[in-house]
Every structure is written in C-alpha cells, then in structure tokens.
Amino acid sequence: MSHSDMPAVDEEGTRVRKLSGYWRTLIIAASIASVLVCVNQQFTLRFFVGYTLLDTEYIYLLIVFLFPFTFLLYPSSKRAATEAISLMDIGLFIAALGSSIWLMLHVRQSASLGWDFVGGPPSVLVAGGILWALLLEALRRIGGWSMFWCILPFSVYPLFASWEWLGPFQGVQSSLPQAISYHVLSAESVLGVTVRAFVDVVIGFLIFGTALTMTGAGTFFVNLAFAVCGTFRGGAAKVAIFASGLLGMMSGSIVSNVITSGAVTIPLMKRGGFSSARAGAIESCAATGAVLAPPVMGATAFVIAEFLNVSYAEVALAAAIPALLYYLGLFMQVDAYAARLGLSGIPRSELPKFRDTLKDGWYYLLVVALLLVIMLYLKRESHAPFYATVLLIALNQIFNRRGRWDGKRVLAFFEELGRVFTELVAILAGCGLLVGAFVMTGVVASIANDLLKIADGNTLSLLIMCAVTSMILGLGLTTTACYIFLALLIAPALEKLGLNAMAVHMFIFYWGMLSAITPPVAIASFAAAGVANASPMKTGLYSMTMGSIIYFIPFFFVFDPSLLLQGEAPYGAALISLSFIVLGVFFLCGGLQGYVAWLGDLRRAGALEWPVRALLMGGGILIATPGSEVIGVTKVTLLAFGGGLVVAAIVIAKFAHLWAAPHSRDKTDRVPTPGQI
Hints:
- 67% of the residues lie in helices and 1% in strands.
- The longest helix has 35 residues, at 407-441.
- A two-stranded antiparallel ribbon has the order 1-2.
- The protein is globular.
- It is mostly helical.
- Helix 9 runs antiparallel to helix 14, helix 9 (193-214) packs antiparallel against helix 18 and helix 11 (235-251) packs parallel to helix 13.
- It has helices at 21-43, 55-66, 70-73, 87-112, 115-118, 122-143, 145-156, 176-185, 193-214, 217-229, 235-251, 254-271, 276-288, 299-308, 312-341, 354-377, 384-399, 407-441, 444-454, 459-474, 479-489, 491-496, 501-512, 523-532, 536-546, 553-559, 570-593, 609-624, 635-655, and strands at 595-596, 600-601.
C-alpha cells in the first residue's frame, strides 16, 4: 500500500499539488504527529500522561491532523492552478481543521450526555454539519463528480427515508439534527467501520509500503523478475507479470505499480514485438493484481476484515489462491500469445544475474518474512507493519550504501506519508456516510428480503445480479465505496441463501474492482496507455481480454469456498479444485489466444480455427468450474461435458491438418488481426 491506490487503489486519477514552503512543513509535521499518535495507540505507550484517548477521540485526532490537507493537496477543478493555493482552499482547510478539532474536543462530552437520546449539543451539530459538507467536497476532489453524485443522495437519504415513493428503500426518517448527530458521533458512520479499518490496521501498512518503495524495493523486484523469467518467450511481458506481482504483494497499489514496473517493462515489451496497446494491457492487468495479492492488499481488504469481524490475516489467506489463479491465467495468456506470434525472450547477456540481484536486495525478503511471521503466526497484524518498517529502515541504512536515508530523505518520507494518509482518510470517512445512512434508516434487512423475492430464491440469479451491479457501480465509485455499498445491501441476501460469508464479500470485492481494467473507467489501463503512448480505449479492450480470467474466478470461489481456505479441511479440497481449474484455464487461455501447447498455432486449422477455439474456451470453462448446488450440476458432469468439448476441439484441429507448416506470422503485431485478440 504505498502510493495512491491504497487508494489510488481505486481512484480515477486526479491532480495532486506539490506543497512547498510552510505548507510542506505543516504536512510533514502533521504526518509525524499522526504516526506518533498511532504508535501510542497501537502499542499503549501512554504518551498522554494521566489521560487515555477514547477510540472516537483517537479517530478525530487523526482526522484533525490529516483531513484538512485534502483541500490543499487536491485542486477544486481541472482548471484550478496546481502551483498556488487559492484563498478558497485555505478557507476550506481552516473550516475542516476547526470543525474537526471541535468534534474531537466534544465527542466524549456528547457521549456522556447521551446524544443518541437527546441529540448532540448545538455547537457540535454546527461543526458536524460543516464536516459533513466538507467530506462530500473532499470526495468530489479526489474521486470526481461521479463519486460525489453516488454518495451525496445516500448520505442525505435519512432526511426523507419515510417517503412512500422510495418503495423497498423506505425506512426510518430522521431530522437534520438527528442525522448530523448520527453521522459524526455514532460508531456507524464517519467514525464507523471504514475509518476504523484505517486507524487500526491500514495506517501501519501504508507506512510499511511507503518505506519499502522509498528504499528501492521496486528496483529490486523488477531486477529479480528479469533474472528469473526474462529469457522465456515473450520474456518482457512475463517480467511485467512477475515484477508487478511482487510489487503488488508489497504495495497494494495499482497505479503506482503500473508506473514503477511499467516504466521499465512496457518499452521492453514494445521492443520485443508487442504492440503499444498490447504492452499497456499486459502491464495494467499485472498491476491490477496488486489489490488482490497478499500479504499487503488494497484498502478494501482491511474493510472486509472489519465487516466480517475477522483478522486481516484471515482475509489475506483467503485471497491467496484466487490471486495465484489470476496471475497464473495471465501468465498462460501471455505465453500462448507469444508462442502464436513467435516472440522470443530477452538475451541472457542483457539481463541482471539472479545471484547479484539477490545479493543486493536480500534483506527485502527478510523483511517480508518478518511481516508474514508476525501477521500469520503471532496473529498481530496491527503491529506487524511497524516492526517490519523498523527492520527495513535499519537494514537499508546498513546494507544499501547508495540508498541510505539522510535528513532530506526522511522528510520526503513523511511528506509522502502525509499525502497518502490524507487521501485515504478522506475517502474512508466520506464512504462512512454511506454506511451510516443505511444503518440509520434500518433498511438493510428489508432490502435483503426484497432481493431474495426478486431472484425467487435462485442463488445463481442473485450472484449474476450482484456481479452486474458491482461492475456498474465500479465505473463510478472507488472499489472501496462500491464494496461498502453492496456489502450493506446485497451481501446479507446472499448470506441468507447459505453462501459462505467470506466468499460473498470477496465476490463483491472482485467484481467491484474490475473497473480498473474495464472501459470506460479502466484507470489501470489508461495509466498504462499513458506510459506506452497507446490508445487508452484500445488498451482497455485488450486488458479485458488478457485479464479475462478475473471475470470467472469470483464464481469459482463462491461455488467452492475451499479455494478461500474456508470450511472443514479446506487444504485438500482446495488442492483438488485448483488442479482442475488450472487445467481448465490452460485450455481457456489457449482458445482465447489461438495457441495450445502440443497443438501449436490454431490458425493452421484454417476455416475451422474459430470453431476449435470456441470449443476450447467452452470446455476450459466447464473443466475449471467447481461443481456446486448453486448451479445444480456436479463436478463429474462438468468434467464430462468440458472434456468432451476439449477432445472434440483436438480431433477437429488434427483433422484440419493442424500439424502442417505454420502460416507466416507478423512478429511486429502492429495491426492485430481478430485471431490475435
């Protein structure tokens, strides 16, 4: 979680000011104060002698330090200057600072007075109303107008919740004072599950991810990827997958992953025969896995842990096999594509040596090992990133002669932390308004029942409804906001049908983040297109094809929760399911790219090429799909039909003289044919 994607994780990509002068000093000071307060709270160091902060006071103290900088870092519009800070932005900064301080100072008193019965004090209501409005403006600046208009109606929804025309959304109505009190004083809205995930666990991983990036881990992981798989066919593309996977495991950030890895791999892919759009697509798909790959995932994973009331380590373990499947499917696609076009690897003489690379950066692996041990074995995920960060910086100062931190580097580190903290706390606090509105009105349970009626109790129908809704919402909301919305409204209905809770929430998470590679938003694809100097839309369309396995994986683990290591004795069941899925994905990728090992280039089948490819794709999906009561089909039946389709494809290909001399190939891939898609 280093850069913006926790959340640039999720965001559409906005301009950010580079603060200077006393404003830079101020954000560095606020960042240092935030880290100290967090360390005090996590490790119970008792910095505040004779006084213990309530959780609500602790959260508001971090909001005081961080949230006001939203209006300095993010310009009010695309036309606003990034070089200078306007008087309006300074005014909003002061308003955010003043309202946050006032709420921090009075949240304890409001609780003791029983705000939930008598309402908050008048001054608290004024400060709360100001903060409410400022949070919406912050969401607009960071997430764009689409996010603003998605959150605004629901945040004010409690004010007219009893109106009859709302139908299934009709609920308990609140007055304006009641709504303000609930939003800013309850543990369900601004101070709710989203921000609690940030203050309890996320902030530590942000510190670790930022430190990892600024000590040069990106260079190490990219060089390691080159040393391991650079000589393979289509080597530069496989390096992109491997490097982005390694970086993503540590950063949880899509956009920073694209920029860090893509700056090196995209030019090499283009030089190796990949078109600009195809190179950008491969990099964007590889980088998207950053929010899926443990141990450090995107912000949404921490929110999932809060919603399910489980440890983050359990969420990370659940994500392991799906992330492996995603990268394996992407690797297979790239391999088939490179084989079809005859794209070779990078000469060994041009690659870094594995031994030398490991010698230069071995301590990064030691730090990751410490992180995993503390998270998974000692079960202290909130403490793990702090210990790992201390070890990382210490080893960096000892072994990294060229990258040792001096005073300027330390200040740059806290400046970057301040920017990352500010973005995320604004996003998560703003999304808290969504949670608070639905809890306040009490409509969650009734909507779940209505959805069950609409789906007529059919689990597969409800899953498809959820997938489509998630994807549509993902086009306008961040992944985190999209997940929160559906976790409140649709997840309860799916759980009532008997589906595994972890599988349901991961299903929503996966489908909500598909907008990263799916036009018209496709932030990962568009960022990669910028690096590749390619058409953004063309890159996005290629990304959908290259990353197509991600559209199937959520259904796989809902049908078989053992893939998330859920249920009794899940490891054996997961291994069996994984074996069939890998086999099915192999044929699916071969059909998509038109090349299958032992069969070769499917263009040799002539006019029968596309029927053969269709049979392979259909057979691959059936072989990979776990049998389930959800679809009413056993695994044996799926294997029989899937195997039959694959065998038919092989027989047809053979009879079409597939073994004949291959057609000439256009190794430049300048104008991809339909068969290359």
